[in-house]
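Structure tokens please, single chain.
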Amino acid sequence: MMSAPQMHMALAPQFGLTSRERECLDVIQAHIARYRSSPSYDDIAVGLGVSSKSSIHRLVTGLEKRGHIVRQFGSKRSIALVGAAAAPLPGYTLPPTVEVALRAHCRKSGDDPADVIVDAVALFLDDAGERVASA
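Here you go.
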């Protein structure tokens, strides 16, 4: 059994989610942003790097109980984002695995995802010999 401090550390800082639930929500948000449709459990499993559909079911059920998603039972690909989870992403689309990694980095570092992307593109262009004017 986990002690109170260990349990507190296991919780993600945003929305009262465990870190794994947060990753699952990130995968769902990234998939919907990229494909404009709800992910399947297989899509979520690939995004999280797991093979157990029961693990995905547990995570999705937890997100639903906490009010971040809703599902229509009996329908495939029926996950819909709710509230703050449904907020539109900035004006870029990244592959889901990159989006999840970016969100994880920004949660740890406190960086804004848009700033990280701007810096990465500027470094890429600089390496390619292109000059980027400062804003």
